[in-house]
Structures are given as C-alpha cells and as structure tokens.
Batch of 4 targets.
Target 1
Amino acid sequence: MIGRLSGRIGYIGDDHVLIDVGGVGYVVFVSDRTRTALAGPGEAISLYTDLLVREDILQLFGFQTLLEKEWHRLLMTVQGIGARASLGILGALGPEGVGRAIALGDVSAVRAAPGVGPKIAQRVVNELKDKAPAIMALGAREEPPVTTARPAATVEVQAPEAPVVAPTQSAQAEAMSALGNLGYAPAEAARAVAQAARDTPDADTTTLIRAALRSLAPGG
C-alpha cells in the first residue's frame, strides 16, 4: 500500500497530478480543491494517498491532509459512491464541510457535489452520521504541516517544557475544536462538551463529540 508520496510536481492535469519521486512518475488523481491548491511544475509536493486496486487497473488518489483521506475512505463505503464521486464531494465541500454536512444531517449540502443525486446524498448522511464523530476527532488532533525553514538567529533558546495535559482535558479540547469546525460558537461548544464530560467523566474524544452533538441538536 502506498500511503504517501513526496517529490516534485511533473505536471498538473484536469483531475490529476504527476509526482516525480526519485525519477519515477506517479499519476495521482485529486479533487478540484486539492488541484487548485497545488504549486506549479517543479515545486515540492507531499500528498497522502489511497490506492484503488481493480482487476484491470491501479489508481492512486491524493489528499492534502490525513483527514481528507479518511473521509474519502469512509465515503467509499457507501453504496453508489465511487472514488470519483468521493473526490467530487470533497472538492465541493472540503473535509471539514463534509463532516459538518453529515453531522448536521444537511443532505442538500452533499447534493451540491457534482454527480450526487438526492437518494445517494441521503444515503451518505444516514449511513455515516454515527461514524462522523470518529473522523472529526481525527481532524481535531491532526497536527499542522511541519515547516523546514530555519530560524534567522543562530542562537538557540531552550523552550520551556509544555505543561502536561490530562487525557480528559485533551479530549475536551479536541471535541471543542471539532465542534468549532462544524460552525458552533465557542461558548455553546464549550457548554455542550462540558456537560458531556460531566455525564461521562472518562469519555474519549469521539464519545464527547457524539454526546455534545446530541445535546446541540434541536430538541436535544
């Protein structure tokens, strides 16, 4: 399994990019959103990848973040959603938008993706709503890309050690971050997560997100 490719852009096509890795060119299919974010030919690139294996073909699909890749893999479990339809949904909504639409039951948002009809959009929401919190938790704890730039100063300063955060505090922070990505205001997200944490003191991030969403839902 090829899980990630790092190299240089050979060229950018309508729905794919060629990545030169040590003299070997890999054709990687990407969403419109990912394609428009790419730099030009010759520039460095690093994408998470998912390999689709069929009897007559091997295809690589590329993603800017691990969150986007995991949403792709989850979307592919829905009947009627193939790799291209998944890229269409991710291209139209972005990974955070997909999570928001599914968690809030927004079928019309999923329908906005090209080639996705009302029945398939409804199926996506119905089949993935219970699985969404786990993917949202992954996005909440995903670290930003590591920069390779060197500091201008040559003097090294010892940074103070970061305070140790209890697992329950970390889970609450991740849950609030995930709810923030769904568009909830910080105050209401904090209240919902705090209530969920009081009800289940040892809850992990996924459990907190699921409980908070239930309390935030109309009539919850």
Target 2
Amino acid sequence: MKLEELARHIIDTNRYMVLGTVDPDGRPRVSPVYFAPDGYGEVFWISSPESHHSRNIAERPEISIVIFDSTVPVGGGAQAVYLLATAG
C-alpha cells in the first residue's frame, strides 16, 4: 500500500486523534479528542471553549495532530498519520 493510501485508511478507520497545543508559557499539551474528517484536508472536533487546549489554540493556533489505531497490540506494528496544522 502506498503511503498516501495508508494515511487515508488510517484517517478513515479511526475517530480519535491526539491534539497537540502549546500553552502561553511554552509548555506542550496533548489531548485525546473525537474527530470527524472532511475529506483529507480538514478535521473537526468539538471542545468547550474553556478547555485547556481551546484556550491554548485561542492564543496560538498552530497545532499538531496524530491519528492512529489505539487498538493495535504492543509490538503489533502501529502506524500513524502525523499532521501540522493551524486551528480555526
């Protein structure tokens, strides 16, 4: 399977992602969130505007995302999609 096909498969078959943000003091923050893709160019999630990661995004919209199958057993060859994005 080509890398692009593999990435699409991972996005299509998973609904949780890890959202990475940075707080005002420069500390990284990661949060697992449920997501819904809109094709392969955008992903959507719903979070309270008061959540830690939402407040981080309000100040610094640059984020990182990891989508992977968390059900793969340890040593089972887990694969992931890593993204850099701007939240809006």
Target 3
Amino acid sequence: MSDDVEKRFSGDAWAANADLYETIRTMPFNAGLAAGTLSAARFRHYIVQDAHYLVGFGRALGLAAAKAPDPDGIVLFARAAEEAVVVERALHEGFFRNYGIGPETFAATPLSPACDHYLSYLLATAYAEPYEVVVAALLPCFWVYREVGRDILGRAAPDNPYRAWIDTYGGEDFAAAVDRVIAATDAAAAGASPTLVARMHRAFTHATRLEWMFWDGAWREAGWPV
C-alpha cells in the first residue's frame, strides 16, 4: 500500500477541519498565550482543568491500547497514557507550584462544563466504539496541540511566562509522538470500510470542536451556571 493511500485519512481529516483549526489558532486564549499577556487567572483556570482532563484522557488512551489489533498499537497507546499522566502532569505541577495550587485545592475544583463534556465524549467513545473510531477521536488532542504549540513557539514573546508550556507542545519530542499517533490512525483507516471511515471523520471533527470549547471555556473562566 502506498504512503499516499496510508495517509489519506489524516490528510482528508485535517483538510476538512482546516477552518476550525484556524479558529482555534487565532482565538483570544492562544493569542494571549503567544504574547505572554494571558491573565494568570485564565491560565490558572486552564491548567487546573487540563490536569483533570489528562487523567480521563489517559484512561481513554488505555482503552485504545486494550482495543488495538496488534502489539505495536498496544505499546503506542499504553505509552501515550503513561506520558499523559506522568510527563504532562509534571508540567502542570510546575505551574501549580507557581500558583499555589495544592492537592486539596485541585481535588476540590470541579470539572468545568467544557472539560466534563470533552471527557464524557472521549470515554464513552473509548468504551463503546471500535478501535478505529476511538483513535480518530483521540487524535485531535495530539495534533491540534502540536500545531498550536508550533505556531505559538514561532511567535512567542521572548520573556513569555508560559514558556514551559510552549516549549513542551512546540518541541520535537511531542511532534514525534504525534506523528506516531497519526500513523496509527491512518493504518486503522486503511483497513476500514467506507462507513467506518465516515464514523472516524465524524469523531475527529467532534473532538476538534471540543478542543475549541476547552480553550474558549478557559478564556471565559466558565463554570457551571447553576
């Protein structure tokens, strides 16, 4: 099978959501993150919710590993789960220290509406859907973060207070990890029926929308209205 055929899903999925990605790239939260002018309160809201998100995301990755059809997929997603919980949590803990957020404060902070919605979708998909749809739903969190990280890295203020975040998601180690998830998703799509591929596209688009909702919720410091 040629590389062009193997990469058809990822190329088609990204092209279909290019306008949505551009909306994410230019949204006020990410503009402030790049300029270093994002308020501490907004970033604090974001980093606490992101820490909550990564626990559920790690569970969804573990379920993807369990459903993987081959040993390489098991290892890929099991390692991704470990990195989500261990490696990225270390990034959060650095900001938690800076903001004076202790374990009790974190535990007492409920999931925001956007975080709750996103995790509910990913976990329901991971439990109920076939492997192909699961990996398509998980992919935007990797891919959108890489592209946003790269974009912000290229225009970030030199004394940016969010440099640790920017260096993590704009860095080469994260980029290589994302490439591996893209390749696994393309391989899954290559053996899927047209109907299943269409379900993968719907999952990819929905998760990309939820990426926007997560950052928008952080910008508005959104909580539950009642």
Target 4
Amino acid sequence: MLEIGLTGGIGSGKTRVADMFAARGAALIDTDLLAHEITAPGGAAIGPLVAAFGPGCLRPDGAMDRDAMRALVFSDPTAKATLEGITHPLIRSLTESRAAAVRAGGQHPYLIYVVPLLVESGSWRARVGRVLVVDCQEETQIARVMARNGFTRAQALAIMARQATRAARLAVADDVIDNDGPPEALAPQVARLDAKYRQHAG
C-alpha cells in the first residue's frame, strides 16, 4: 500500500488538504489527533504525565492542560524532552496499530499520515513512500495563525521558529501543494495528486 507523509508549517493548511484527500477515499492518520487522544481524560499518557509533572499538568476535567504544558516546554528544554519521551512512543505505537488496521481492511487506495513535525522527527522520511508538503509563504502562515488562533505576530513567529524552515520542508518533498492562493485553488492540485497516488498504488 502506498503510504504518504503529509506535512507543512503551522497555518499552511495541512488539515484542509488532508480532509480533501479523505473525501476522495484516502485513509488518514493524523498524529495531532492521536496526541489529543492520549492526553484526553483517562488517556494513555495521563498517568505518566502526572508522575513526571505532578497533578498541576492537568485541567479540572482530567485532560492534560495544553496551554500550561506549552508554556512550560517553551521555557524548559528538559521538560520538553520529558514530555516527548512520554508522548512520542505512545503516538508511534498508536500510529502503527491504526496503519495495520488500514492495511488489513483493504478499503482505501492509499494511506496519508498527517505529521506536523515530519521533518523535525527525522524517522518519518524512511517510513513513508512519499512526502507531500503543503507550502505557503511565511507571511501567509503568520496572517492565518494570527487570525485563527488570536496570537500576536511575535507568538506566531515563536512557534514557527521551533519548526523546520520552509526550505527544509521543501528539500524533503516529493510532492508540493501550493496553498498561497484562494481555497478553490486547492481542489485541482489535490485531484492531480490523487490520480498520481492511485496510479502508484495500482
């Protein structure tokens, strides 16, 4: 089965593009959604998180307090390493079990992993057959993040500074979708790649 890693910087439009492929029959595994799953109330990461960071890392409903943890890991590299040491193996295990189910099911022409930190993680390039990058100008990213998240320009830039550069993402890309234009410019690009991936898979 053809397996594709889809990535892009914050505000690039990864989710919109992934949903368009899903509408065409692709199987999707979104590592961000898996991260939310394991840090939800009762999730697999909750016990180890409390053991590492204390009960203050949780919201009253028992989920991980994402805002508090984001602030902590931004200021403390050791905390970041601890958090990733807990969550990354769980996400990887869940990713692999979901992928095995997709392969066994045989209902999809190809599988797309949505991985925001595909370039940064290092191992993904060897795990997928192709890398698809959703690309846009950095100013477009900043404007979208400010509008969507209510962040200041400085906050948007701080997040982008911790991600791979646009050039680094494009350097590993087998395929690129340009998302600088209007939303309607995406459909023909997705259609072209869907046909290409089906041909590969066939």
